[in-house]
Amino acid sequence: MREGGRRMYATLQQHGQPPAHRTAARRARPGAGGSRAEQVLALQRAAGNRAVTALLTDLRAPASSPGTTDGRGLEDEGPTDDRTTGALVGGGLGALVGGVVGGPVGALVGGLGGALLGGTIGELMDAASQPLPVALRNGPGHRPIDEPATVGMSIDIALTSSTGVDADMASVEDSEQVSASLRHTGSYTSVPPGRSNNSGYMPGYPIPPDRHGEPRARVIDLADNHGGDGTMDREQLDTYRVPSAGIGETVVPASGYLIRRIITVSGTTVTFRLQKSPQAVTVNGFTTTAGPSPTQWEDVVVRP
């Protein structure tokens, strides 16, 4: 054994090399008996498989799936984690190459390093195969909200998947990001800028309809006591994450929309319009391009 190999072997012993490793290393020393191939295989079993076992233990912990604020529980889609495949391949190759190049100690280190490197490669391959959202569609289905306390519009929402299959978005978690109110005009200038209620993270398929509402009493008050007609805007985009693939909070491309509230007064009649239009936006530090859906709206006669 080369002098460098002796020093590395002694270091491993000093730092508490597991008994199985010491036994395998002794068996694999020149003169200990057995062919070169048998020595390499013995070291691979002691080092590579031990590293694989440790990695598999780490992978047993489930990805975190915090609850959502809209009352829907998260569904467990059980995504496949291919990192174990990378670890097995990397461990075997690392032990084989290490055994040929560096002798028994090289096989030990190669097995451990190869397993870790292989695990990283497997993780990258898993992320690359993950379906991802490429746009957020609004509509075409939408309907008025005409309730005793609230007026506005409910509109259907869907993530467009990179695979072309909407249902594949069940493997990602989606959330809306809505800005504070902007560009108040007319009667709405009497209303200070305010935050909107945003959804928490939920499964990306199916997504419940997006509700945009205004208190009926406030619409009538603005129309009668603060100048009549008026408008107020908010901007909206979506973010997603995939904990199982190691993808953190990321903006959805082509998910930007402008939400506009419009009060119109004609005589004693008060009409409220909720309108959504595609627009490039920046919200909460995220920036995206305009969504693919056309402008859509609903009119509600608040008072005839």
From TrEMBL:
Annotated Glycine zipper domain residues: 85-127
Compositionally biased intervals (Polar residues): 177-200
Matches recorded under Pfam families: Gly-zipper_Omp
Start-end of Basic and acidic residues biased regions: 72-84
Chain positions covered by the region annotation Disordered: 13-37, 57-87, 170-205
Entry superkingdom: Bacteria
InterPro entries referenced in this protein's UniProt entry, alphabetically: Gly-zipper
Name of protein: Glycine zipper domain-containing protein
Organism: Cellulomonas avistercoris
Lineage: Bacteria, Bacillati, Actinomycetota, Actinomycetes, Micrococcales
